[in-house]
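mind reviewing this fold:
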Amino acid sequence: MRERELIIVGENLVPDKQQRAHNFRCISKLLLHAESMDAFCTANEIIDVNKYRHFRKKHLVQKIMSDNRKPFVFVVNKN
């Protein structure tokens, strides 16, 4: 599990170091799921200006993201 830098407001609310470490582990587990490639491909689409196309299907977004980066191919959030 990779280390993360997190800003927690009100750190003094949890003075126990063990409890704070437990909270960090829980947050890290949540972020691991939220930052997965599957979640990324669901939330984003690819716009290829060169071909005048956009790709929304997860497997196509993942394929394009894994290929070499090309000019005028953009990742856009669906929100």
Notes: The chain has a mean pLDDT of 81. The radius of gyration is 18 Å. Residues 14-79 form one domain.
